[in-house]
Design goal:
This protein has 79 residues and is of the alpha+beta class. Helices cover 14% and strands 34% of the residues. Strands 1-2-4-3 form a 4-stranded mixed β-sheet, with no helix packed on it. A hairpin with a 4-residue loop joins strand 3 and strand 4. The longest helix has 11 residues. The radius of gyration is 12 Å and the shape is globular. The termini are close together.
Length: 79
Amino acid sequence: MNSSQSDFILQWNTSSLIAHWGEFRQYIINKKPLIAAIQETKFLDSDLDKYTLEPFGYSLYCQNLDKPRRGGVALYISN
């Protein structure tokens, strides 16, 4: 773990990460958790390029339920 990273795991049922993206992104940038485990992302596979945190050092792993937007989970893991 590098010195700028916090030693915790974030867990959040967002009821649509898309609706909370700005808040989530800012939180990750400021607090730097090791892992963010997110439920109810409501992502479609086609959304993934828009909701990456790779520039901030996180890899995205997710399972989406395509059409209609519902459910879905995501793990953002610090590199």
